[in-house]
Design goal:
The chain is an all-alpha fold and 166 residues long. It has three helices and no strands. This is ATP synthase subunit b. Belongs to the ATPase B chain family.
Length: 166
């Protein structure tokens, strides 16, 4: 083994010094470089894990929000349909009431017109009677030469009207 050490030019003191230097360097790297890098990598891993978890939670909330919006839209559509139906029924009722009221008003106007015409007819009939009575009285006075009393005029008028009416 000594021969091998001489052939390769290995000096045991330098080899031992290099081994010590390597162990010191390894200790220093592990202590000051490797641990902080592992710590940074671990923190980065935790941050990424937390971000993924937060993203999942946000996605779940978004899904719930979308579902709630759909429910609200469906509810609003149902309420709108109900309001439209209610408004249509109310409009139909108002139109029906207006037609009924217009019909009643028209009937009242027709009845008032009938009454007015009846009153006008009665008034004209009275005027015609009075005119006929005057003419009969004048005619009778001209024919007989004497004036008629009120009672005679009434009797003559009644008799004449019966003959005219039929």
């Amino acid at each position: 083994m000594e021969q091998i050490i001489k052939d390769f030019g290995i000096q045991p003191v330098f080899l031992a010094a290099q081994v010590v230097n390597f162990l010191v360097l390894l200790f220093l790297l592990k202590r000051f470089l490797y641990k902080p890098i592992l710590k940074v990598l671990d923190e980065r891993k935790k941050t990424i894990s937390k971000s993924l978890q937060d993203a999942q939670e946000i996605e779940q909330r978004l899904q719930k929000t979308v579902e709630e919006q759909e429910k609200i839209l469906i509810k609003a559509a149902k309420e709108a349909a109900g309001l439209i139906d209610s408004a249509t029924k109310s409009a139909d009722l108002i139109i029906s009431e207006a037609h009924t009221k217009a019909s009643l008003n028209m009937e009242e106007m027709m009845e008032k017109t009938r009454q007015s015409l009846s009153a006008e007819k009665e008034k004209l009939s009275q005027e015609v009677r009075a005119e006929v009575a005057n003419l009969l009285t004048l005619g009778f006075e001209k024919i007989t030469g004497k004036a008629l009393s009120k009672q005679d005029q009434e009797e003559l008028l009644q008799k004449s009207m019966k003959d005219i009416n039929g």
